[in-house]
Design a protein that fits this description.
The complex is a heterodimer of chains A (263) and B (66). Helices cover 35% and strands 15% of the residues of chain A. Chain A is α/β, with parallel strands linked by helices and 263 residues long. The chains are: A alpha/beta (263), B mainly beta (66). The interface between A and B is medium-sized, with 40 and 28 residues.
């Protein structure tokens, strides 16, 4: 299989890693981590401006838009209505039709509300957005999101910010097998091996934030994730060997040397 | 008159447009968007939209997030 570019709606990416901008120790570290990750798209959140401190250098001054597309999210929204308004504001502020649709249903697990997410996705697609919805590892919800016109589906591998790794590899594999749009694993990756495992399942890309930002050295972890995503993708395309229960020697069993012992 | 701006009740002089409001608050337009009563107002229209009594204005920008 050829390693083709990643296509999401009208957009094409050489990198299969999408990274966040949250939780970094500083914006300078974030910027260096973005570079090291090789990512071509970064997520941002949308919030009210503080009226008592409206000026100063802001996040988007630290994102080189010649190198990175911006993927605004609707994080923090608990209803389709709020998510739609947030998406519309993001489009106006950042001049992009890309939106990471996130409609949360529960504050402790941060699991998405499937019903509200699907309703919001349908409306945003009608309004011309390129919708990338965060969704549970639910093949039916993923299918519905695809049917209403989402450009990708983004199932979680574990709860947001948990770093538990891919807790649901069979569900993710099923979602990937059935999807006709790119599958992007969003949330749960804690270290490089998790990223490789996710990519080996055949998913099209990974989105991560805390896995990089909360590492002791985020810049180095960003580099590790870049390599892990590449390695996982290559391993998937290569096709792994079949597992077997017993040993099978790698060296020939013929023409073995015999020492002159009695026998 | 009174209007809600990012959830804060504020006094606004009658005749103030959304464009005027941003200027008064010292907010540069780059990376910013405005909604009035849940409707996004494009930057080209901000100078045409006068704030009315009881309006709910949201002024947003991008912040760090995942």
């Amino acid at each position: 299989m050829k390693n083709e570019e990643l296509k999401i709606g009208e957009y094409t990416f050489g990198s299969r890693l999408i990274v966040g901008t949250g939780k970094y120790p500083s914006l300078d570290v974030m910027q260096a981590a973005h570079e090291a990750s090789g990512a071509e798209m970064v997520t941002v959140a949308i919030r009210r401006i503080h009226l008592d401190d409206p000026s100063g250098k802001t996040l988007i001054d630290y994102i080189d838009r010649a190198k990175f597309r911006i993927l605004p999210n609707t994080a923090g929204c608990y209803s389709a209505k709020d998510a739609i308004l947030t998406a519309q504001l993001a489009r106006e502020a950042l001049e992009t039709d890309l939106i990471k649709l996130e409609v949360i249903g529960d504050a402790q697990t941060l699991h998405p509300d499937a019903g509200e997410t699907i309703a919001a996705a349908e409306e945003l697609v009608k309004q011309g957005f390129t919708v990338l919805p965060y969704v549970g590892d639910d093949p039916v919800a993923c299918k519905r999101l695809e049917e209403v016109g989402c450009a990708a589906v983004m199932p979680l591998a574990a709860p947001i910010g948990s770093g538990l790794g891919v807790c649901n590899r069979y569900s993710i594999a099923i979602i990937k097998e059935r999807a006709r749009v790119p599958v992007i694993v969003d949330a749960g990756v804690g270290t490089a091996s998790d990223a490789a495992i996710a990519m080996e399942l055949g998913v099209d890309a990974l989105l991560m934030n805390t896995g990089i930002a909360a590492a002791k050295d985020p810049v180095r972890m960003a580099s590790a994730m870049r390599h892990a995503v590449l390695a996982g993708r290559e391993a998937y395309l290569a096709g792994r060997m079949t597992r077997r229960l017993y040993a099978n020697a790698s060296s020939p069993m013929q023409d073995l040397i015999s020492s002159g012992h009695d026998g | 008159m009174r209007a809600s701006i990012n959830g804060e009740e504020r006094d606004v002089r009658r005749g103030t447009t959304l464009f005027d409001l941003l200027q008064q608050l010292g907010i540069a337009m780059r990376g910013v968007a405005v909604a009035r009563n849940d409707r996004v107002i494009g930057r080209a229209q901000l100078a045409d939209e006068q704030i009315e009594e009881g309006d709910r204005i949201e002024i947003i920008r991008a912040v760090a997030g995942g």
